[in-house]
Every structure is written in structure tokens, then in C-alpha cells.
Amino acid sequence: MAKFFVLHRPLVDPKQGWEAFGQVAPKAAADMAAGETPAKCLKTWNPYAFGRSDIVFCLWEAERLADVEDVLREYGFYSIVTADVIPVVEIDWAELA
Predict the structure, then answer these.
(1) N or C: which end of the chain has fewer CB within 10 A?
(2) Rounded to whole angstroms, how far apart are CA atoms 6 and 4?
(3) What is the 3-state secondary structure of the chain?
């Protein structure tokens, strides 16, 4: 599986966006955990609590970039955020040591 880093920027007021996220994310996460989606979000980093409401970062795993976009679209995330999906190579710093 390939890894993808996704940079999200809000399309709506950030507070409203997080309320919407809280409504759809549990179902999306359950479906991903059950293997019912072609892409899986592994981690999300949200700096909102630290005063940054302009960006959120996610790490995804999928066969194709389009699979990540399809899952984001299917669960309605594109109605609250943009998504710049970037193919990446994951470097394990513990292995480098």
C-alpha cells in the first residue's frame, strides 16, 4: 500500500467544520477499520486547540491517490475541507538510527 499525506483547509467556519467532522468521522473510521473502504486514514493531526484553524494534516494508506479522494468524497469531507493529496514515502527515523 502507498502512503499519502493530505493537507486540509477549511471551507466553512472551523468550529462548524469540527462539529460536522464529529458527525461523520466515527462512521468513516468504523468502515475503514472494517476494511469497507479502498483507502484508510491512519492518523490526523489537528492544531485547532493550539490556535491554528487554517489547516489539518492526515496520513492515509491506499493503492491509488484516487482511492483517498473517493473516500473523502463519499463521507462528505469535501463539503467542509479542501484536500491536497500528496503521495509520500514514509521514513522511519528509528530505523535510520
Answers:
(1) C
(2) 6
(3) CEEEEEEECECCCHHHHHHHHHHHHHHHHHHHHCCCCCEEEEEEECCHHHCCCCCEEEEEEECCHHHHHHHHHHCCHHHCECCEEEEECCCCHHHHC
Residue whose grid cell is 463519499: 74
Residues contacting residue 14 through CB under 8 Å, at least 6 positions apart = 48, 53
For residue 65, the one-letter residue type is L
Q: What is the pTM of this model?
A: 0.90
